[in-house]
Amino acid sequence: MDQKEAAYMISIYKNKNITKAARELYISQPSLSRYLQNVEQHLGFPLFNRIGNEYLPTYNGQRYLDYASRILQVGNEWEKECLELKNEQRGKLTIALPLMRSSCMIPETFPLFHQKYPEVSLTLFEEAYAISEQLLLTDTVDFAVYNPPEFSKALEYIPLRFEPFVLVCRKGHPIEKLAKIDKQAPYPVIDLADCREESFILHVPEQNSGHVAMKLFEQQNYAPHILLQTHSTQVAISLASSGMGLAFAPETYVHKMQQTLSLSCFCVGSPPAQVQLMAAYRRGKYLPAYAQYYIELLKAL
C-alpha cells in the first residue's frame, strides 16, 4: 500500500460514496471505481459493503483502513519535516477551535503569523460546540485549542493560559447586591450558596463549561434549577443578559459579547473558579516550526 492508495481508500471511507470521493480527489468516478476493484482484487477480499449508494467498510476493510490512516499520518509528517530540513518555510497549518474562540483569537494572531510565514496557509476547523478528540487522533488537524473536560493519554497538551470562569447575569439583577469585593479576584465575588433560588442556563455536562459548573454546585451541596441546557455559549450568555436566568462562561466569551449585551460578571468559588486553555495534539506527532510558532502567539494573547 502506498500513499496514493491509502488516500483514495480513506476518501471513499470518509465520504461513504464513490462519486463524492472522486470529486474530492479530482478524478473521475469510473477511474476511482476501477481503482477500488483492482485493490480489492489484489487483496483477495472486499474492503467495502455496497449498501444502496453507501460504501461501508467490511471487518477486513476496517483493519485495512486503520493501516491506511497510519500510512497517511506518517507520510504527512515526513513531508512537513522534509520541508523544514530543506529550510523551505511553506506548508499548511490546520487548527481546530470553538467558533467563538476563533473570532477572539485568530484576528489577533494570524496577521503576525502570516508576516513570518507568508507561504504557510491556514485552515480552521471551527467547531460550533465541543472539540472532538477524534479530529486530533486521525490527524485531521495539526492541533486544537480548547478547554479539555478531561485529559487523554493519547494527546500531548501545551498550557496556554488560565482564565476566570465567571457567573453572568443581566445588569441590575438582584444578585448584584449580594456580591462582595475581593482584591484577589478580577470580578466581585458571589457565594453560589446565595443563588439556590435562581434559575440557570447551563452547558451540557459533556462540555467543559457544563462539567466545571456542576462541580461548583456539588461543592455547595445542591442541585441547581436548570431552566435550559445548551451546547452554545452564545445562547447561554444571551439568555442570561435578557434576564432569563444565570449562566457560566469563560471570561473570553463574555468579553466578546459584552460589546453588544448588558451583562454583569462575578467570580464564584474559593479560590475563584478558572478554566485552563490548552493546545492539544496527538502524542508523538511531529509539529513543524510554524505550528509551534502559532502556539507561541496564542500563549502571548
TrEMBL record:
Gene Ontology terms for molecular function: DNA binding; DNA-binding transcription factor activity
Similarity remark: Belongs to the LysR transcriptional regulatory family.
A GO CC term attached to the entry: cytosol
SUPFAM superfamilies according to UniProt: Periplasmic binding protein-like II, Winged helix' DNA-binding domain
Keywords: DNA-binding, Transcription, Transcription regulation
Record's keyword annotation contains Nucleus: no
Statement: the UniProt record of this protein carries the keyword Transcription: yes
Database matches in PROSITE patterns: HTH_LYSR
InterPro entries, sorted: HTH-type_LysR_regulators (IPR050950), LysR_HTH_N (IPR000847), LysR_subst-bd (IPR005119), WH-like_DNA-bd_sf (IPR036388), WH_DNA-bd_sf (IPR036390)
Record-given protein name: DNA-binding transcriptional regulator, LysR family
Domain HTH lysR-type stretches: 1-58
